[in-house]
Amino acid sequence: MICNNCRQEIPKGEEMNFRGKVFCEDCYVEALSIPKTCDVAAVYSARKTREAAGQKGTEGLTPLQKEIYEYVKEKGRVTPEALAEKFDTTLAEIQRQFATLRHCELLKGTKIDGVVYLEIMN
Ligand SMILES: [Zn+2]
């Protein structure tokens, strides 16, 4: 299997599915950490919008986003798969929610011993 992003051969069993594409682990972490919508201007404007609305931390998030944030905060580090299971939703949905949380600089993606986790961004 070839990674849809970097075109490298992916070792068997390490293919990661991301928004309908097959990614190697590195590209998967990167895709999780840097959502398409997450360019500097977008983050800046998201922050400005929240600031203008007087929103800090998890204010202005949807209830699900807040719950995800609180859960990750409590656990310290959670895999997207575990979150999908915990919140009884799909991995794609978690990735979508994560994009917003990453956008608001609340959560980030990290990789430890080959496993992708979401954690609180300090
Ligand atoms: Zn790749």
* Helix-strand pattern: EEHHHEHHEE
Shape from CA axes?
A: globular
The helix tally amounts to 5
Which structural category fits the helices and strands?
A: alpha+beta
Report the strand count.
5
Task: Name every ligand kind in the structure.
Answer: zinc ion
Amount of beta strand: 15-25%
Q: What is the count of distinct domains?
A: 1
Low-confidence stretches: none
Q: Termini, distance in Å?
A: 36 Å
Find the CATH topology: Arc Repressor Mutant, subunit A
**In the CATH hierarchy, what is the class?**
Mainly Alpha
Fold and architecture overview:
The chain is α+β, with helices and mostly antiparallel strands and 122 residues long. The chain has a single domain (34-120), classed as Orthogonal Bundle (Arc Repressor Mutant, subunit A), CATH 1.10.10. The protein is 45% helix and 16% strand. It contains 5 helices and 5 strands, in the order ββαααβααββ. The protein has helices at residues 25-33, 40-52, 63-75, 80-86, 91-103; strands at residues 16-18, 21-23, 77-78, 107-112, 115-120. Strand 1 and strand 2 form a beta hairpin. The longest helix is centred in the middle third of the chain and has 13 residues, at 40-52. The N and C termini lie far apart (36 Å). 22% of the residues are buried. The model has no long low-confidence stretch (mean pLDDT 83). Zinc ion is lined by residues 3, 5-6, 8, 23-24, 26-27.
Write the SSE topology.
Layout: E1 16-18, E2 21-23, H1 25-33, H2 40-52, H3 63-75, E3 77-78, H4 80-86, H5 91-103, E4 107-112, E5 115-120
Antiparallel strand pairs: 1-2, 3-5, 4-5
Helix pairs in contact: 3-5, 4-5
Zinc ion is lined by residues 3, 5-6, 8, 23-24, 26-27.
